[in-house]
Please model this.
Amino acid sequence: QVLPQLRPAAFKDRKPVFDLHNRPELLKFGTIKSVPWPDHMKWFDEALSGNPLLFIVELEDKMVGVVCLTRRALLCAEATGYLDPEFQGKGYGTHAIEQGVILAHHRWTGVREVFARILPTNEPSLKAFRKAKFFEFPHDLGLGLSGLKVLSRLL
Model:
C-alpha cells in the first residue's frame, strides 16, 4: 500500500486548504466551523512562519489532507488535521498523524506531549488518533473542554 507523505505547506496551498477545510462533510466533525477567507489568510500566513506547523498530506502528488501542530506551551503541542472523505478509512490519517508528531518533535525538541481535542461524534478522528498511540483522558481535566474528548501522546 502506498502511504501518504507530508510536506510543509506553501503559499500555493492557501486556497486548496481553505476549500478542503470548509467542505460540509468535514465541518460536521470539526471543533471549528466554517472559516471566512480573511481569517483563513491570517492563520495561513502565521502557519507559513512556523507556528503552527502546517503540513500537506499528499498521496501520489495529490493533496488529500492537512496535519497541523500548534505549540501550546514549552512542553506540549496540539494536533489537528483532516482528510478528504474519499481518502478516509484507509489508514492514511493515522500515518499522517504519526508523521506530523515526529516532524513536530524534530522541530520543537522540548515538546514532550502532543494532544488533540475531538468531538465525541467524530469517530474517524478518534479512531485515527487512538491508532497513532494517543490515549484518551477520562474527563476534561478542568480545562473547560466539556463536550470534547482529549487524547494525548507522550513523546
In short: The first helix runs from residue 14 to 21.
